[in-house]
TrEMBL record:
Similarity field: Belongs to the diaminopimelate epimerase family.
InterPro entries per the UniProt record, alphabetical: DAP_epimerase_AS, DAP_epimerase_DapF
GO CC field: cytosol
Keyword GTP-binding (UniProt): no
Listed Pfam families: DAP_epimerase
Keyword Cytoplasm appears in the UniProt entry: yes
Keywords of the record: Amino-acid biosynthesis, Cytoplasm, Isomerase, Lysine biosynthesis
SUPFAM superfamilies: Diaminopimelate epimerase-like (SSF54506)
Protein name, as recorded: diaminopimelate epimerase
Reaction equations catalysed: (2S,6S)-2,6-diaminopimelate = meso-2,6-diaminopimelate
Entry EC no(s): 5.1.1.7
Catalytic residues in the record: 75
Amino acid sequence: MLLRFTKMHGLGNDFMVLDLISQHAHIQPKHAKAWGDRHTGIGFDQLLLVEAPTSPDVDFRYRIFNSDGSEVEQCGNGARCFARFVVDKRLTMK
């Protein structure tokens, strides 16, 4: 699987951000765990996914995986990086 990604840093945490609107992939916990390994993967604290919206009222869907593959609801530093990413990539005009 060949994917374009962005590596971001925020207040001591590092993130891998995947835009899954402009490219398509089905990301599973095993991918986050493999990519999150700092010795054999890319290495990150969390994987941030930008996905197609599931509701017409929003521009995208936001998902977060820890480097151990577990999916979590929120991360403050990740949210800051995510907001910067979607604005820089013009994925939202809000």
